[in-house]
């Protein structure tokens, strides 16, 4: 049972590739975001045809009354929104960088919390790990579970709920990040009798499509270098180092892996980084 897929955060960095992969597999796809706008892509026109196949809707994940009608008859929901830092300025900078073909010269310092943020710009009080990473997923899961229960449960063919969690914390990132992800996972796994929870644990994400050099590409190259050095010099034999230097994974791999788990009626549970890397 996988024909109507709702992707919350479907216009985001990862969400857009999930939508694209789902369209290629013949699913009806609805993207939900506050703006309700499709992503702006620099790829050639013929590679952007899938955008017309997606229904781009506006709603707030924290307010189920804005999207309840879309949940009806949905065979799957994907929650693809979250924050790495509780400082909104980093998202604005990433968006600016990816939206511009001639990316502004990047600065590591300006990307880090509190160093480059403008004190005159007020932060959204909901922009916390607790609300965005955890409560938004729980709110969506409860709304979806209620809808499924009202429509009647077919235990042979449960709908899916996919949550984009994370492999582990990143150096210099507060523990609240990974803790909020793990707490959300725990809560979602409790709904197993109503939907099939699929918990994705990717590492740092990059796009396989070559674009302008920006903060994401620099971090990706740094991680590749560290991983190669770890393998070449230490043979990847030291668990403590392997635990810190984790491989990056592409948004295309994550999306392929998500769709393969959604379409496998027997799968439920956690998908670790090592499995995602094989997709
Ligand atoms: N990026 C990484 O390296 C990485 C690594 C590991 C895990 N992850 C996880 O992967 C997931 C996706 O990350 P991403 O980098 O693709 O995020 P992103 O680019 O920030 O995309 C999230 C999208 O969610 C939408 N959104 C935000 N608040 C919303 C709300 N209240 N209601 C509805 N839509 C809302 C936003 O669109 P609007 O502004 O239009 O609402 C945005 O386009 C997250 O859970 C993240 O923690 C990311």
Write structural notes for this entry.
- The protein has 279 residues and is α/β, with parallel strands linked by helices.
- It has a domain at 4-86 and 125-207 and 249-277: Rossmann fold (3-Layer(aba) Sandwich).
- Helices cover 41% and strands 13% of the residues.
- The protein has eleven helices and nine strands.
- A seven-stranded parallel sheet has the order 3-2-1-4-5-6-9, with helices on both faces. Strands 7-8 form a two-stranded parallel ribbon.
- Helix 1 packs across helix 10 (251-262) and helix 6 packs parallel to helix 7 (176-189).
- The model is unreliable at 100-110 (pLDDT under 50).
- The site of NADP nicotinamide-adenine-dinucleotide phosphate (NAP) has 23 residues, from strand 2.
Q: Hey, roughly how much beta strand do the residues contain?
A: 5-15%
Full CATH superfamily name of the domain at 4-86 and 125-207 and 249-277? NAD(P)-binding Rossmann-like Domain
Nearest-integer average pLDDT: 88
CATH topology call of the domain at 4-86 and 125-207 and 249-277: Rossmann fold
Low-confidence stretches: 100-110
Instruction: Give the helix proportion (percent range).
Output: 40-55%
Number of β-strand runs: 9
**Radius of gyration from CA coordinates:** 19 Å
Query: Helix count, per DSSP?
Result: 11
Q: How is the main sheet built?
A: 7 strands, parallel
In order across it, which strands form the biggest sheet?
Answer: 3-2-1-4-5-6-9
CATH class of the domain at 4-86 and 125-207 and 249-277: Alpha Beta
Task: Give every kind of bound small molecule, once each.
Answer: NADP nicotinamide-adenine-dinucleotide phosphate
Shape: globular
